[in-house]
Design brief:
This protein is an alpha/beta fold. About 45% of the residues lie in helices and about 10% in strands. It has helices at about 10-20, 25-30, 35-45, 50-70, 70-75, 80, 90-100, 125-130, 135-150, 170, 175-190, 210-215, 220-225, 235-240; strands at about 100-105, 110-115, 160-165, 195-200, 225-230.
Amino acid sequence: EIQFPQMSTSAAAELENAIEAAGLTHLAQKYLAKEKMENMCTRFLVARKGDTTKALKMLQGYLEWCENDQVLAIRHKTASQMLRADTNPESKAFHDKTFIHGLLGKCYEGRPILYQKYGKEFCAKKMEDAGFSGKDLEDYYTWMLERALEAMGHEGTWVVVVDLEGWNLGTHFNMRHIRYVRACVDRSSKFYPERAGKIFLINVPSVFSKCWVLIKPMLDSVTQAKVGLYSASDDYRSVMAETLDINLLPQSLGGSTILTYDSPHSLDPMLHTGPDPT
């Protein structure tokens, strides 16, 4: 169970009372899944430094987004359904080929490890040219996070490994890709507060600093402290080994994991529904 020693139980109770007074209890419970209401309240309070009014406003924004974007429907879909494989097989195949990603397993503390390679092959502009709208790509990002939540029973934090091998200004420093990155960072910070346990950015090229200048201000100071940037020449494997079994990394990084996207995807519902509530 996630612990927030810096936030009192009474503060969470105060926010829960504010949620009830605002008529949002039923809606909040709709999206709780297996998370306790107290823990949900605490996450949003921590994100807003204990300010109940600001935490309530943030939570209300989250609930409105969930309703508007039909997050419950997204949460229970497969990757093939998200990518409309039945009517758009060629685009789905292009997505599978160019976006290497998936669930690697769990770290030593039992947190799910989500791997995403945003290298030379992946570019939002190319994805959109292949038939996916910007909204499609953003919803797929939401799907990955929702599936990671299901894998951990909606309690605790996750570990994210972002591989930037091959990232370059020519391919990635364009408005469509920047818009996609901003949207993903925005969703993570606004709608999944206090979910990041560790974020490893590996194989980071020197030119990425131009993009990091745009991304970093979108992250709160607590999240920034959880992000580690490592170039290809850095010994990031030794650092990561303190958190997870290096053998869980994809084969391209010297591990043993083979990421597949059909029959089924590593994040699909039939594989990961979280721990038994009993």
